[in-house]
């Protein structure tokens, strides 16, 4: 749509890497839309890459529709399916990729309007992207909420359960169950969040009776948006009431753009605004001005080199 319209109304056409570089250099309000591809260089699998993506792995496990792992109804029925997969997406360090560093660089230059991320790994924060510049369209692993009582905790407290692929239950629910249970003799660690080392230890020592308490307690769901759940209101507000008016360049990186409504973002932004795409695979359902296909860290590094921008990151060779 973008290129077609440009041709029809005789707007300038953009085709080459150097065109992309000059657009980057002259733009003042860049919307960056990112997906799982910007974190794969850190060892976090995406969804759809053949062979390495989570969906390929789940197909191998015999799941008919891998998307079901992130289906809210299924989570309510059997959270263990989600927990068995979540450990792979949850980062084990605060490392971010050169592409995250590039988005931070745009922010430092004062030309990042918004980073809409579909990622739930929360690495944008570690790269220093400011909360006011970031919309986490699908939530994140930062916090988790009990699906029964709404009790919210930092996901850090569930870290050991998440990494062990073990369903995390709600401490507040467990406490309540124990309070109403007559004749309970059990002792319980006072700070016991379900994921802390201390608590894990106490679970390991627990009796069958205690395990029963935990099993009936509410399940903690990381505050990521599952299929069947609404996106945060800030996503629509920011896009429709703020960015649509201001944006002068759209940069889409490392996403297959297959998950709605984020996949519709490029369509609601003015078609006269140039749209660039960086990913390993072409995105056949969107007509971007320039498709730059390949590894995003490499492409970003080259764009910065040509722009004369100093992108620093431990994964970028000094002379590149
Ligand atoms: P996707 O559908 O798996 O698409 C990822 C895209 O990135 C594919 O087109 C790949 O070809 C491409 N890609 C992979 N690695 C690279 C690379 N190094 N350089 C360039 N391109 C690359 O994932 P989407 O993000 O499009 O789908 C949205 C889902 C994925 C969201 O709901 C996320 O929550 C979910 N997800 C997030 C993470 C994460 O937070 N890191 C990981 C896995 C899935």
Automatic annotation (TrEMBL):
Q: Does the keyword Transferase apply?
A: yes
| Residue ranges of the TM segments | none
Q: Which UniProt keywords apply?
A: Metal-binding, NAD, Transferase, Zinc
Instruction: Please name the catalytic residues of this protein.
Output: 138
Q: Source organism's superkingdom?
A: Eukaryota
**Binding of Zn(2+): at which residues?**
146, 149, 170, 173
Q: Where is the composition biased (Acidic residues)?
A: 205-214
Q: Which region ranges are annotated with the description Disordered?
A: 184-214
Respond yes or no to whether keyword Lyase is given for this record: no
The cofactors required by this protein are:
Zn(2+)
Sequence ranges assigned to domain Deacetylase sirtuin-type in this UniProt record: 10-310
Stated family: Belongs to the sirtuin family. Class I subfamily.
Any idea what this protein is called? Deacetylase sirtuin-type domain-containing protein
Q: Which residues of the full protein are shown?
A: 146 to 465 of 486
């Amino acid at each position: 749509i973008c290129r077609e319209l440009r041709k029809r109304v005789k707007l300038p056409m953009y085709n080459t890497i150097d065109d992309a570089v000059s657009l980057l250099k002259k733009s003042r309000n860049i919307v960056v839309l990112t997906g799982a591809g910007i974190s794969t260089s850190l060892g976090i699998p995406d969804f759809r890459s053949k062979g390495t993506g989570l969906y390929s792995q789940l197909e191998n496990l015999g799941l008919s529709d891998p998307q079901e792992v992130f289906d809210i109804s299924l989570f309510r029925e059997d959270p263990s399916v989600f927990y068995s997969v979540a450990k792979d997406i949850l980062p084990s360090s605060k490392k971010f990729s050169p592409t995250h560093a590039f988005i931070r660089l745009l922010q430092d230059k004062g030309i990042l309007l918004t980073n809409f991320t579909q990622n739930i790994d929360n690495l944008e924060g570690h790269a220093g992207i400011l909360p006011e510049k970031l919309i986490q369209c699908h939530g994140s692993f930062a916090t988790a909420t009990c699906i029964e009582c709404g009790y919210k905790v930092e996901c850090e407290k569930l870290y050991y359960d998440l990494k062990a692929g073990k369903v995390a239950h709600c401490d507040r629910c467990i406490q309540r169950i124990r309070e109403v249970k007559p004749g309970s003799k059990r002792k319980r660690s006072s700070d016991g969040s379900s994921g802390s080392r201390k608590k894990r230890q106490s679970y390991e020592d627990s009796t069958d009776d205690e395990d029963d308490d935990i099993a009936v307690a509410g399940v903690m769901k990381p505050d990521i948006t599952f299929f069947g759940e609404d996106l945060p209101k800030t996503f629509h507000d920011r896009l429709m009431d703020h960015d649509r008016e201001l944006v002068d360049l759209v940069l889409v990186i490392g996403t297959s753009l297959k998950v709605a409504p984020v996949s519709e973002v490029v369509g609601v932004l003015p078609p006269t605004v140039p749209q660039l795409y960086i990913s390993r695979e072409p995105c056949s359902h969107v007509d971007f001005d320039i498709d730059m296909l390949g590894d995003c860290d490499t492409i970003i590094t080259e764009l910065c080199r040509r722009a004369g921008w100093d992108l620093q990151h431990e994964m970028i060779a000094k002379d590149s």
